[in-house]
Amino acid sequence: MKKRIFIDYLGITAGSFLIALALTVFLVPNKIAAGGVSGLATVIYYLTSFPIGITMLVINIPLFLAGIKIMGMSFGIRTIYGIVSLSVFTDLLQPHMTALTDDLLLASIYGGVVGGVGLGIVFRSRGTTGGTDLIASLINYFTGITVGEGLLIADGVVVALAGVFFNLEVALYAAVTIFITSQTIDVVQEGLNFKKGVLIISDKAEKINQMVVNDLNRGITEFEAKGGYTGDRKRVLLCIISRSEVSELKKAVSEIDQEAFVIISNVHEVLGEGFTEIVH
């Protein structure tokens, strides 16, 4: 338990560092205010020269306190740690780091990737850096708007401010960064080791079942279903295989039953026996 907690806080620390790095070497020097509290802090920085890290901390603390008062301690100590870590790292790095590029497209892409990796690590460590998710939760509480819509509103307002105080082009690049960040977060959380989920509907399910177990050495789950049109009872097989096994499976199923109905889809992460160990 203590080891898991230590690893989580180590992850939050590393993730916060990467987010701060993305801000100081890609986003802030190019005035890319990519939504959220960090984006708002970037706008304020260029208007007042007030340190970005302190600004984020000043904005996040009342949001966090409001969240506690309204919704209880659901955000917890990890949120406080994430907020403080990101603010400290940002102000420590900024005086010593220079922009790696002045190309807005490169800055928006790499800023989104590095920041997204950082956020993904923080989220996988069951933490948060506050900011937009706190705002979205408060919007949801007071208005009933979904958290997803709240995130869009919060980020949209910041991007709009960037368009007003900087220029429209910078605001458009900020939108690119937000999109790339969200996609990168998903990759980090779900992993790159994609598997294939296969559903097979066949009158020869027993033979296919044996083939998967004996030839592919994969587990398989069987359940009953009823055809919506015919009303006939069908046996449905479900199995998870690697990408390299797809061709072999399709060929084997075709040889057993050419009338089989097969659905193959991407599976981002598989936990359990034979795959990734479940971490508590």
Automatic annotation (TrEMBL):
Family annotation (Pfam families): DUF2179, YitT_membrane
Gene Ontology CC annotations of this record: plasma membrane
Membrane topology per record: Multi-pass membrane protein
Gene3D superfamilies assigned to the protein according to its UniProt record, in alphabetical order: 3.30.70.120
InterPro entries the record matches: DUF2179, N-reg_PII/ATP_PRibTrfase_C, UPF0750_membrane, YitT
CDD domains from the UniProt entry: YitT_C
All residue ranges annotated as the DUF2179 domain in the record: 218-272
Cell compartment(s), UniProt: Cell membrane
Transmembrane parts of this sequence: 7-28, 43-68, 75-93, 105-123, 135-154, 160-180
Keyword annotations of the record: Cell membrane, Membrane, Transmembrane, Transmembrane helix
Highest taxon, organism lineage: Bacteria
PANTHER family: UPF0750 MEMBRANE PROTEIN YITT, UPF0750 MEMBRANE PROTEIN YITT-RELATED
Protein name according to UniProt: Uncharacterized membrane-anchored protein YitT, contains DUF161 and DUF2179 domains
Native species: Halanaerobium kushneri
